[in-house]
Design brief:
about 200 residues, alpha/beta, Rossmann fold, 2 domains, two-stranded parallel sheet, about 35% helix, globular
C-alpha cells in the first residue's frame, strides 16, 4: 500500500481507484495508528494514505468492484493464490489480456501462485478451469519471510539451547541447506520431518 501511495505522490501512476480487499490488510491501518513509535509514517501521512484507498469490508463490495468496469488496482488477500478473496477476482479477470496479476513475495511449489509464475495456460478456481491471458508479474522483494541469515541471527538470541530443532516449512533443498547451516553454526540437532512421520516429544 505504501509503495502505491509513494508512486501516486510522485505522479508515477494516475489517480485511479485502489481497492484494499483483504480483511487482514484492512487491520494494518489500525495497528499502525495504535503503535506510532514502531514505524516511520507520521500520523498525517498515514491518514492521507488511508483516505486515498477504497477499503472493502464486505463481500458485497467485492462484487461491486468486479462489476465496476473502470481501470483499477486491487490488493486482495491471496495466501499464494491458494485462498482468499483474490480467487474471486481472478475468476473474472485472469482470462482478460488487459489484466496484470502482480504476485508479491514467495510462491511455494504446488500453489497457484507458482503455477502462474511458471507460465500455466490455465488454473483451476472454484472447480472450474480458467484460461490465463493476463500478464503475470512478480516482485520478490516484498516477501514477509525472513531469509536464512535473519533466521540464523534469530536463533542465536535463544537463551535456552533447544534439544532439537524441527524445520517444517520450506522447499526441500532450502530446508536442508538451513539444517546444515544451523548445525554448523550452533552444533544443534536439526530434523526435517517426513510426511506422516510421528515424533514423540517428552514434556
Amino acid at each position: 500500500m505504501y509503495k502505491l501511495w509513494q508512486l501516486y505522490n510522485k505522479n508515477k501512476i494516475p489517480n485511479i481507484p485502489i481497492i484494499i480487499d483483504s480483511p487482514m490488510g484492512n487491520e494494518v491501518f489500525g495497528v499502525f495508528e495504535r503503535f506510532t513509535s514502531w514505524h516511520k509514517l507520521n500520523p498525517d501521512e498515514l491518514a492521507a494514505m488511508k483516505n486515498h484507498f477504497n477499503i472493502t469490508t464486505s463481500y458485497k463490495d467485492t462484487w461491486k468492484t468486479i462489476d465496476d468496469k473502470r481501470a483499477k488496482v486491487v490488493i486482495a488477500g491471496s495466501g499464494m493464490v491458494s485462498g482468499g478473496r483474490v480467487l474471486t477476482y481472478l475468476r473474472y479477470f485472469i482470462d482478460k489480456p488487459e489484466t496484470t496479476v502482480l504476485l508479491v513475495g514467495f510462491q511455494a511449489e504446488g500453489t497457484r501462485g507458482r503455477q502462474l509464475i511458471e507460465g500455466a495456460n490455465e488454473i483451476k478456481i472454484f472447480g472450474k478451469y480458467c484460461e490465463v491471458n493476463a500478464k503475470i508479474r512478480t516482485i520478490e522483494s516484498l516477501s514477509a519471510h525472513a531469509d536464512q541469515k535473519e533466521l540464523i541471527d534469530w536463533l542465536g538470541k535463544i537463551k535456552n539451547i533447544p534439544e532439537k530443532v524441527f524445520l517444517i516449512h520450506g522447499e526441500p533443498t532450502s530446508s536442508d541447506t538451513l539444517r546444515v547451516k544451523i548445525k554448523d553454526t550452533y552444533n544443534w540437532q536439526v530434523h526435517i520431518p517426513h510426511l506422516n512421520e510421528t515424533i514423540n516429544i517428552k514434556l
